[in-house]
Specification:
Elements (H helix, E strand, L loop, with lengths): L7 E6 L6 H10 L3 E5 L5 H18 L4 E5 L14 E4 L4 E5 L9 E3 L3 H6 L5 E4 L4 E8 L3 E8 L1 E4 L4 E2 L12 H13 L3 E4 L5 H11 L4 E6 L2 H5 L1 H7 L2 E5 H7 L5 H15 L3 E4 L14 H12 L4 E4 L1 H4 L4 H17 L3 H5 L10 H15 L4 E5 L4 H8 L6 E5 L2 H6 L6 E5 L6 H14 L8 E7 L8 E8 L9
Parallel strand pairs: 1-2, 1-16, 2-3, 3-12, 5-6, 12-13, 13-14, 14-15, 15-16, 17-18, 17-20, 18-19
Antiparallel strand pairs: 4-10, 5-9, 7-8, 7-11, 8-9, 20-21
Helix pairs in contact: 1-12, 2-4, 5-7, 10-12
Length: 478
Amino acid sequence: MKRNRRVKIVATLGPASSEPDIIRRLFEAGADVFRINMSHASGDKLTELVRAIRKIEADMGRPIGILVDLQGPKLRVGEFTDERAELPEGSVFQFDVDKSPGNAQRVHLPHPEIFEAVEPGHSLILDDGKLRMTVREASKESITAEVVVGGPLASRKGISLPDTVLPFGAMTEKDRADLEQAVNLGADWIGLSFVQRGDDVAEARKLSRGRVAIMTKVEKPAAIEHLDAILEQSDGLMVARGDLGVEMPLESVPGLQKRITRACRNSGKPVVVATQMLESMISAPVPTRAEVSDVATAVYDGADAVMLSAESAAGQYPIEAVATMDSIAIEVERDENYGRIVHSQQITPEATGADAISAAAHNIAETLNLAAIVCYTGSGSTGQRAARERPRQPIVALTPIASTGRRLAVVWGLHCVLTSDAEDLDEMVDKACRIAYREGFASRGQRVIVSAGVPLGTPGATNMLRVAFVGENETENI
């Protein structure tokens, strides 16, 4: 199934989209990767969804990516006597280690790590930003804070500490168990929450042992401070704008989105822009004009993928939300200014043969007005390098490894096809031409450029380019 756009779509599965027929329709509407949120899914549900997706993948004959998003540590306040308390602006409120139910003056905070790390002057954000406080005093047993933005605070509501680096990693015991199950089921990406530093990603990488790609969610101020180290340890990043907008000033999020997108593009790693992209479509069949512009901005920025969360997981119009995102992306990429905007960011190839080959393939394809770029890739790195160039021509990525094709489903512009390795150079070129023709990317008489590694099948050895004509016999032996 050929997509008419380069940016990919990630759709979150949930109560509104757990049935196999709905998942199939989401794929047909434009979803390239399915996200399973372990904050809401059980182990049994994860197994059920993965099996359903793989069945659809087999029926459709196209690799589909699966992103399993780990819950991460959840910081919450304790219980209140009447389930909630009203905290007026300017009042003083205390968090402590006393497990008894709270009131308008205090509440239990069941996270001793917070008491160890917080300092006077630090901000506390509660209930997704509805309440804000500033710490006045802190000890190992209590935190006294002034209420800056007041309101009702209910039992078990979340607490965020944007100024505080907490002394624990990004993974809980539940996350470790979920990761192991996801890997055993054949998930392609793991979404890592609550990352503060590069070492948090290193822990997940050690546990996964290279069996799954790591997509780090950038959602905390500390992650912004350590962005380079986090990106180095990660296989891709997600701009988690919801939590990022809670813990940082809202007006800073658009600039951070561009910064993260450019950093990933420069490193040749995929970036997903997420949260509230078509939020109104949870309950409405059409988006707002502002939401359409928001999606378009991410596409113009050169993001690899845009993501739907509650819109497809719990909304009333999950199919329509995917179809709407698909149509927005197609229209943006048709804009005559799209190419100039995407290429306004200068990408300097690294001093490697593979990077030089990918840059050359882009230049040759542009100069000769070729129909497509076809690259053989085993590990996926050649495909990612080709995508990093953001060429005008479609990129057909040929791989004999199913897991590689699935992982590349989130990468900008890559149309992945599973095929066996060629026996020699002539067969390699012939196969590339046949598949480009079969998949609808080249017609008879047009030319394509083929990149591969010689000797064939050698990982990370991309060192060859060949310009080839798509001949009259391309329909034979497909």
